[in-house]
Design brief:
PA-PLA1; seven-stranded parallel β-sheet; six-stranded antiparallel β-sheet; transmembrane helix; metal ion binding; membrane; DDHD domain-containing protein
Length: 1400
């Protein structure tokens, strides 16, 4: 034992004071640790006796010895001080607080428990206790998180958080669209039940600037007006009213707490009504309970809401409304007491850390809102929490090892006892402060200090005082803890650690573009290493800091220590660009003026911000070009704002001392076609209550009409090789309903700027892209047509192009022709005005003839402007204008146009283009036509200008491709007008059945001949279904609307254009020389009988591809992918569709879908392959005009239902012994004259070939229809043969222009004649159904009956034969039978009947 150190003598060893030779010899090993005096007495005993003689009540700090008291230390005072600071005291001390003597019995309970109970039993008890703890918390919390709140009357309840709710108000500035028409999303007439969480009194604060009039609200609750109704006499709406109206953008849950209808501690449900609508003012009121007053707003706002009694009567019952977070917190705090008191330091640390982490995530301060009705939100919360949990545990383990273990863990001097500290002091000192830190949202967050940044300290009221106080307290605590660190002899070690911390923070703070942001969890991590002592202060500080770290890591995640300025500002404006400045308001003219900042005048920002937005009372009221002024009076006298202004005028609380209404204006730069907007400070503008002496003009409203082109597409699918050559000239107006929807969507698009599509036509099969203003198909590839929003129209009542309309309308708003007024002319008769104008013009004739006429400058004219396309526009009045060439540049001609240009009789004479604003405008009737001499002089001036500016243009010869495009466009125009009747309103049909139609052979012809169009065939099928359904006698008693809806939707599935091989394209394979190594199909074709060879290449080739291994896999994948794509798109457009899906395959398409259905596995994979697995179950599989029978026979394959397929069945083997399509019902429908249709039933069992096919009854035909067949036979046959002849001729005309001998043409024609003659001769020898008998089910074996029943559960048959008409001769019908299924009423009626059977 070093006596010198024990006495505080720092100089040397014991030998300097007691000579070594004076010590006696050691007699044994037990005496090796004892020291003796020279006389042999025990030196250590003497020292102990001396120490025990000291005052026992002396403070333990007195045992610390310092070098200043050592007479033998000759160092200077400075050196002694430095040594003292660096090395610490001579005998370092860091002892745990001892037990409380008065409560020693309680202090000993944990020690006795550890000594008296085996470790395994203690572990088992701990596990059981923790499981019981978890079950109690789970039972208290799970119902709130997983069960949606409900009411006895099944009223839907919205689950909200404490912030803003988009259903009430979408956000600040322009988020709700022009005039705020996009908000609220809830009906005024219906009450809304909301559920609010606890703590919304504080959580409804806004920490980003939100404008309210001329105020910028931040660091307070965002609820405007309202307040609890103080008495029954104050109720304005009904007896159920509990609060005054709040402005609609107020945070609903914060408002509910403010009104006292929801508790801040347990949350709850509240009933909200929007029946209060627009209000004239919203006075601020005090909170029902203790809290801030609401924000006051002394002007109008277009929407508001108020709270009503949750229980209108005693019959109402609500469940799952109360927030259990405080109950869960109390459970965790109480059940944590035994762990803290009884368990070891390590067990206590990890248990309470984990409990605190999940208490925050799931109860007291969850990082995201959980929708009880949506289980995915709870899963998302769990996922987010787990993502933060593991990194938090890693940091906790480091903190435990470097600091906390010294305070809570084993003592180095007490290895025998794992935890010699006072458990009671740990429970009293560490545990409460730990929960204070964990509940940061209830403790420190309540202080008036959001973030410790200079900006927040300046902006938040009271934050400076709080910041100074916290700084002083933290500094004092640091000094106290620094003393204990020094006292333990580890000061220099700890100091070096913090020097590294400071250097690291400085380096991070110097990173370019980033600002140092020390979150509270980072502050806790930095300070915990300084609390690595065993005293009472360490227990206090460590508990608090550990709680703060867990609070930050669980609620906010391990956020970055350095953040950008944009992130630190949250949603506040960056301030890099100054907004425009409001300058003045002229109450006489009504003009509001502003000036742009210097930055906006730069080219950079002029190109970026192309307009301005004016907000009136925090609602976007105007969007337009940045022209420096607008007519505010006209804007405030519109119907929307005029009615709101009246509310304020009649509200005494909205009027100031001068009886004026304050209207708060904010003007900001804006990108017109996007949502980007710059926030600006508001200006309060008094609007006089009386009327002004000056007449107020406002731009007349125009009813926009929507049109779509039908003659010239903007584009076509890529495989058509189409180039637009002409502009469309034929436009058709949308229906009134579609126009209204388009106008509403257009307004939303203009305000949001996000891509937006609006469905039009029946079942919304087409949609309008508001970004490009184009009409396009929704579910398939097809031609895309231009859409025009008609505001300005030409003399033919056709809308002008979008670009030209925008220019003219902008000039219209700028020049304001609706304000044109001449008091002198108004007092004159119309004829007098004409005579006066003529006299003025005739007075200029001599000057004009002498070429002395004056040129005008268009910028100086009050009624005209340059359109920038070589034309000027001149406005006559509010609805009429005229366009004319810019070559008309003299005042004489301009005077003539002004006075006579708007007359219908003078338009052609003056060569003008009259345009009108609105479709209902009629041309003016002139009293008198223009005199001949004036007209001749006018034209002579035009001829002079034309001669100066004209250029000779060579006439171009006819373009073959242009002619072909025009021919195709004419066919498409007819198809557009026949297939889609967009001019008639059609309500949204209820759909129960989706039929996907897959085409067969020949669609490659669509590349050259758009008359071959499968989409048109499907449109015909859809219309035929509607006709058959409405004409069916069983439906006649139902109402007309029901007759129109068969609840079936039919969509096309096109696949051929996705196959790589086409007759007209060359393979891209090249040889070593870089040339193509393979020819095209046309290059290997023989010249003889070219029309038939072309048909073979375009039609029969598809069958060859189906049997080529290289292409069959590609065909399967393309068709499956397209089926899944169209189905997914339909579900996206119709999310409420819960009906059944059917597939109809025609010709080769039936064989493809038959194979695909056979490939489907019994159970759909969890992650389906979109190229192999269908995303839906097939109800009915219709094979129409199908070659499946012959294909299966060639493959020697039988057809079996899924119930008879064993486990060895290979679903992907199309050449197996058995094919088994996965569907509920299989149908094989064919016409008796169809050369491609074959039976399937004999492939189920050959004996079925002995029986007749089940015939399909007539859909709506009877004797009358057969007579109609007789009458139309001649014209029908003649028409079809003429079409066939034209088709063959078109093949010849489309070939390259190569000379051909007349003899060759004759040979081709003779060859075709021989083929047709042979077909007639063969057909005449054949007969159908010879020797076959009708099928009776009793004649079949039970197993075969079951097989047929499993393949078709509806009818027990697979093959179905269409009926023949009286004059359906086989050889004639063979030319059309294969392609007539889509328009054949019998085929369509049969398919529709079988589809509707699924409803049963």
């Amino acid at each position: 034992m070093n006596i010198a150190n024990e006495r505080g003598i720092q100089s040397s060893t014991v030998e300097e004071y007691i000579p070594l030779e004076t010590f006696g010899k050691l007699d044994s090993m037990e005496e090796s640790n004892r020291l003796f005096n020279a006389d042999g007495t025990d030196l250590e005993s003497d020292v102990v006796d001396h120490l025990e003689g000291e005052d026992e009540d002396e403070d333990e700090d007195d045992d610390t010895y310092y070098p200043f008291d050592d007479p033998y230390d000759k160092r200077s005072t400075v050196s002694k001080w430095f040594s003292l600071i660096v090395k610490g005291p001579c005998n370092p001390r860091d002892e745990a607080p001892g037990s409380i003597k008065a409560l020693q019995y309680i202090e000993d309970i944990p020690t006795k428990f550890r000594h008296g109970v085996l470790p395994k039993i203690r572990l088992a008890l701990l596990v059981v206790y923790l499981m019981m703890w978890m079950l109690v918390v789970y039972h208290s919390l799970i119902s709130y998180l997983t069960l949606a709140p409900s009411s006895s009357d099944d009223t839907p309840i919205l689950i909200l958080d404490c912030g803003g709710e988009p259903l009430f108000w979408k956000g600040k500035n322009n988020q709700c669209g022009l005039d705020g028409k996009g908000c609220p999303s809830l009906a005024d007439s219906e009450d809304v039940i909301i559920r609010c969480p606890a703590l919304c009194e504080r959580e409804s604060y806004t920490f980003s600037f939100l404008p309210v009039g001329d105020q910028m609200i931040k660091y307070r609750g965002y609820y405007i007006g309202g307040g609890a109704v103080q008495s029954d006499s104050k109720r304005e709406f009904n007896a159920q009213q509990l609060s005054n109206p709040y402005r609609a953008d107020s945070y609903p849950c914060g408002a509910a707490v403010h009104a006292g209808v929801v508790s801040s501690y347990v949350g709850g449900c509240a009933r909200v009504s929007f029946g209060s609508k627009g209000r004239g003012s919203f006075p601020g009121t005090k909170a029902y309970h203790k809290g801030l007053s609401s924000v006051s707003f002394d002007s109008f706002f277009p929407s508001s809401y108020y709270f009503k009694k949750l229980y209108p009567d005693e019959s109402y019952v609500f469940s799952q409304c109360k927030d259990p977070r405080f109950m869960v917190l109390a459970i965790n705090v109480l059940l944590g007491v035994p762990i803290v008191f009884m368990a070891s330091g390590a067990v206590m640390f990890w248990t309470m850390s984990v409990v605190a982490f999940w208490t925050i995530c799931m109860a007291t301060d969850p990082p995201m809102k959980v929708e009880a009705a949506d289980p995915e939100t709870l899963a998302n919360l769990m996922s987010l929490s787990l993502g933060r949990f593991l990194p938090t545990c890693c940091i906790l383990s480091v903190l435990w090892k470097c600091s906390i273990e010294r305070t809570l863990g084993k003592s180095e001097d007490h290895d025998a006892d794992p935890d010699p500290r006072s458990p009671l002091q740990r429970l009293v000192l560490w545990y409460p402060l730990f929960w204070v830190g964990v509940l940061n949202n209830l403790t420190f967050d309540r202080l008036h200090l959001d973030r410790f940044t200079w900006t927040d300290l300046k902006l938040q009221p009271g934050s400076m005082a709080v910041g100074v106080t916290l700084t002083v307290v933290v500094a004092i605590c640091c000094c106290v803890q620094a003393y204990h660190i020094w006292r333990s002899g580890r000061f220099i070690h700890t100091l070096l650690i913090y020097v590294c911390f400071v250097v690291g923070l400085i380096l991070i703070g110097c990173l370019p573009g980033l600002t140092l942001r020390i979150h509270h969890y980072i502050l806790a991590m930095l300070l915990i290493p300084g609390c690595a002592t065993r005293g009472r202060t360490a227990l206090l500080f460590q508990g608090l800091l550990l709680g703060l770290f867990i609070s930050g890591a669980s609620r906010w995640g391990l956020a970055s220590i350095a953040e950008t300025t944009r992130v630190l500002l949250r949603d506040d404006p960056i301030g890099t660009i100054e907004p425009p400045l409001l300058v003045a308001f002229d109450s006489v003219t009504g003009l509001l003026s502003w000036t742009s900042s210097q930055a906006v005048n730069t080219v950079k920002y002029q190109n970026y911000y192309d307009g301005i937005a004016l907000m009136i009372n925090d609602v976007e009221a105007y969007i337009g070009l940045n022209e420096g002024s607008l007519n505010l009076t006209a804007l405030l006298t519109t119907e929307t704002y005029g009615s709101l202004l009246k509310l304020s005028l009649n509200d005494t609380q909205a009027l100031d001392a001068n009886q004026d209404v304050l209207v708060y204006l904010r003007i900001a730069m804006k990108i017109i076609d996007e949502t980007t907007i710059q926030t600006a400070k508001a200006m309060g503008l008094p609007i006089w209550r009386g009327t002004s002496d000056a007449t107020i003009y406002s731009a007349p409203e125009v009813n926009a009409r929507w049109f779509y082109a039908t003659d010239v597409p903007e584009s076509k699918p890529v495989w058509t090789d189409y180039t637009k050559e002409l502009d469309p000239t034929k436009f058709v107006e949308f229906s009134k309903g579609d126009s209204a929807r388009l106008e509403t969507s257009y307004s939303k698009f203009r305000t949001s700027g996000k891509p937006l599509y609006t469905g039009v036509s029946e079942d919304k099969l087409l949609q309008v892209n508001h970004d490009t203003l184009e009409l396009e198909p929704v579910y398939w590839e097809g031609p895309i047509y231009e859409v025009r929003r008609g505001i300005w129209f030409d003399h033919n009542k056709l809308p002008l192009s979008g670009e030209l309309t925008s220019k003219i309308e902008a000039l219209y708003q700028k020049l304001k022709p609706y304000e044109f007024k001449d008091d002198e002319e108004e007092a004159m008769d119309a004829s007098e005005v004409v005579e006066k104008s003529l006299a003025r013009i005739k007075g200029q004739l001599e000057e004009v003839r002498a070429k002395h006429h004056q040129l005008y400058k268009v910028d100086e004219q009050p009624d005209m402007a340059d359109l920038g396309n070589g034309k000027y526009v001149l406005f006559f009045n509010e609805s009429e204008a005229v366009m004319f060439p810019s070559t008309i540049n003299n005042s004489f001609q301009l005077d003539i146009i002004r006075n006579f240009g708007n007359s219908g009789s003078n338009l052609s004479l003056l060569e003008l283009e009259l345009i009108s604003r609105g479709l209902d405008c009629s041309l003016s009737k002139s009293i008198r036509s223009l005199p001949e001499d004036i007209a001749n002089l006018y034209h002579s001036l035009m001829a002079d200008e034309d001669t100066k500016s004209s250029e000779t243009e060579a006439e171009a010869g006819p373009d073959e491709q242009l002619a072909k495009n025009n021919e195709d466009n004419e066919r498409l125009q007819k198809s557009m007008e026949e297939d889609y009747n967009l001019s008639v309103d059609t309500s949204d049909r209820e759909i129960d059945h989706l039929v996907l139609c897959v085409h067969g052979i020949g669609q490659i012809l669509g590349i050259r001949y758009e008359s071959v169009n499968f989409v048109h065939s499907v449109n015909v099928l859809r219309k035929t279904m509607a006709n058959v359904f409405s004409a069916n006698e069983t439906k006649k008693d139902k109402d007309e609307q029901q007759n129109l809806n068969n609840k079936i939707q039919v969509l096309p599935i096109s696949w051929r254009h996705g196959i790589e091989f086409t007759p007209y394209k060359r393979f891209q394979t090249k040889n070593a020389a870089g040339r193509f190594s393979l020819p095209t199909l046309e290059e290997i074709s023989v010249d003889g009988v070219k029309p038939l060879r072309k048909i073979t290449g375009d039609v029969v080739l598809d069958v060859l591809l189906y049997y080529e291994a290289r292409y069959i896999k590609q065909i399967y994948e393309i068709v499956t992918t397209e089926l899944n794509r169209v189905y997914s798109k339909y579900m996206e457009m119709n999310p409420n569709f819960k009906g059944k899906v059917h597939i109809m395959g025609h010709s080769l398409g039936s064989a493809i879908v038959f194979d695909i259905a056979s490939f489907q596995k019994p159970t759909r994979p969890k992650e389906p392959d979109l190229k192999k697995d269908l995303l839906f179950d097939i109800e009915n599989l219709f094979c129409v005009g199908s070659p499946v029978g012959i294909f299966r026979l060639l493959r020697q394959t039988n057809i079996r239902p899924r119930s008879e397929v064993d486990k060895s069945y290979d679903f992907l083997d199309s050449f197996g012994m058995v094919s088994s399509p996965k569907c509920q019902n299989l149908y094989n429908l064919f016409h008796p004259c169809d050369p491609v249709g074959y039976r399937m039933e004999p492939l189920i069992d050959p004996m079925l070939g002995e029986y007749k096919v089940d015939e399909v009854p007539f859909a709506i035909k009877g004797f009358n229809s057969l007579v109609q067949d007789l009458q139309s036979l001649g014209s029908d046959v003649a028409e079809r043969f003429l079409k066939a002849a034209g088709w063959f001729k078109s093949f010849q005309s489309s070939e390259k222009k190569v000379s051909k001998e007349n003899s060759t043409l004759v040979e081709d024609e003779n060859a075709l004649g021989d083929i047709v003659s042979s077909l007639f001769s063969v057909e005449s020898k054949s007969s159908s159904h010879s020797g076959k008998k009708s099928l009776q089910k009793k004649s079949l074996s039970p197993s075969l009956q079951k097989t047929l029943g499993d393949l078709n559960k509806n009818n027990g048959r697979v093959d179905y034969l269409l009926p023949m008409g009286m004059f359906d001769f086989s050889i004639i019908m063979a030319l059309k039978a294969h392609v007539s299924y889509f328009e054949d009423e019998d085929a369509v009626g049969f398919i529709m009947r079988e589809v509707l059977k699924s409803n049963k």
